[in-house]
Amino acid sequence: MTKNSNMSVLLKGLLLENPVFVLILGTCPTLATTTTLIGAIGMGLAATAVLICSNAVISLLRKVIPESVRIPCYIVIIAGFVTVVQMFIHAYLPTLYELLGVYLALITVNCIILGRAEMFASKNSVGKSVLDGIGMGLGFTLALVSIALIREVFGAGTFFGMEIPVLSNFKIEFLTKAPGGFLVYGIMIAAVSKITKGKAPYKKEFSCANCPSASFCGKQNCEERKGN
Amino acid sequence: MKKHIKSVISLTAICAVVSLLLAVTNYVTDPIIKKQESDAVGKALTVVLPNGEDFQTVELTEYKLPETVIEAYSEKNGGYVFKMTTTGYASGLVILCGIDADGKVAGATCIASNETNKAETEYGKNVVNATLDSIDKVDTVGGSTKTTTAYRNAVKDALNSFVILNGGSVDLRSEEEILADNLKTALPDADEFTPIFITEDMEGIKDIYSANNGAGFVFVTKDKFIATDLQGNVLTETEQEIKTKVSSAAQKQIGVTLTEIDITKYPDMPTTVEKAYKTSTGNFVLELRAAGFGIRGDEWYGPSGEYIKIKVSVTSGGKIITCKTVSQKESDGIGSACKEPAFYTQFNGKEESNYADIDAISGATITTNGYKTAISKVFEAVKILKGEN
After folding, report:
1. Each residue of B269-295: pLDDT tens digit?
2. What's the predicted TM-score (pTM) here?
3. Domain count, chain A
4. Which end of chain B is less enclosed by CB atoms within 10 A, N or C?
5. How many whole angstroms separate alpha carbon B347 and alpha carbon B356?
6. Domains, chain B, ordered by start
7. Interface touch A79/B15, C-beta < 8 Å
8. Which residue is closest to A66 within chain B, CA to CA?
């Protein structure tokens, strides 16, 4: 499987470039919506829908959008899709709408979406951008679900809201609170880093031109940091 | 320059397309969201109006409703649900009250409160089926008088609002405002009035008010306000029978003077009598102290630390003419009801044989008994003052 094959674009988001565990993006919604599995799946799928749509449109318009106003254009497109998704969830899934609360609207400022628009969709074809959106979206969803699984099952003693016999008597409520969320998140990052043997974070795709740390980093590209 | 123009056009075009997309989405989802919200509100409202269907918000700015009413919903069958926010023992007492098409309370519930004894959680059951005519007769709960009175008043506001929304009109003035307006109507030359303590036994007169500017007096009968000048000549046009009654009352009361009696000369005088006066017509006015919740025997208890002060006028034959609570520091919301005219006017017209036949204050047995004991000594004091003992 070549590096840029369609399958690789689709699958990299799941593990090797998982937006949550490897790129460490979207930490706020990750911690906020992973107290329940339903919330995690809802947030994951809502973000996936926005990712696919915004990646497709941004890729389609990549040659039309002038370089100087690209970020405002991306934000307008992303905010538009988030609002559309928000309206549909409000209309057809009111319970999920209540559950996600303000974090649904905050998908607009989710770094994963703007990050993929800037790093991938603005440089690749529509087809590949859609695949990237699907891969990254599912990777985000997978990450949320895996954290939520631990927090809900062991923290609240429930599974999709249903009480688990025995376990519900020995729940570790700390896990449902913010510190518990950070703890599980950290352990998951460590586990993924172990599985990927520490290679994942230093991919060349983090181009220095778009990196906010480029001015003081002093390195030519991120691979130079390997082994630091 | 060309580059800048291109940037502006691109961003504007993207914004326009996104706006269009949002408008279309809103067009599709808005009716569904509105219906959902209305269903959710309807579900909450059916708790207090079980037969209500298809609730719609009523725009309150179009009506002059009582100030406590903050939201109102109409329903298909002619019923209404009102949301009131009021103050019981603490502020923030929020009541939801459903009124059916017949103007009867279908249900009431407290949806938020900061009260301490939580009587408001159950009190809604007591007002079910009440109407505007019967709501004042619903009993408050002893020990939670303040909370339940505020609750009952809020429900009354809902019933009044129901009348207003159905095109009727109700008097939203407080009792004090109604009294002030009635006095002013009877004697337009006066602005402020002072109640006169009635010392003479007169038929059919409830209260007498004196105009502060000396314009005259207003005599209150069962349902009329009759003005007289300072000499007692009736100014208000009314039936001859009432004119005669008021004129006779005026002749009796106006010009009555009080002379203080030195009660230390009477060693047997009950200790509850603090001061005694004799009127120029031979009646007596006594200032009493009653041991309420604050004092039992010779020891002070509880929060009061003060006697209830009572003023009584009594005929030489031992019939109470007027009884009034002058001051009190009984427990707020419980024994403090002794300051209400509804309680103390019960003694008006009573004699030694029947003074105890009055309704006690709910939840305040000690206050009621202390008050009754002080009143019981009035008859003994009159006999002593007349030299019969």
Report:
1. 888 899 999 998 889 999 998 888 766
2. 0.53
3. 1
4. N
5. 8
6. 56-165 (no CATH), 175-253 (no CATH), 258-386 (3.90.1010)
7. no
8. B7
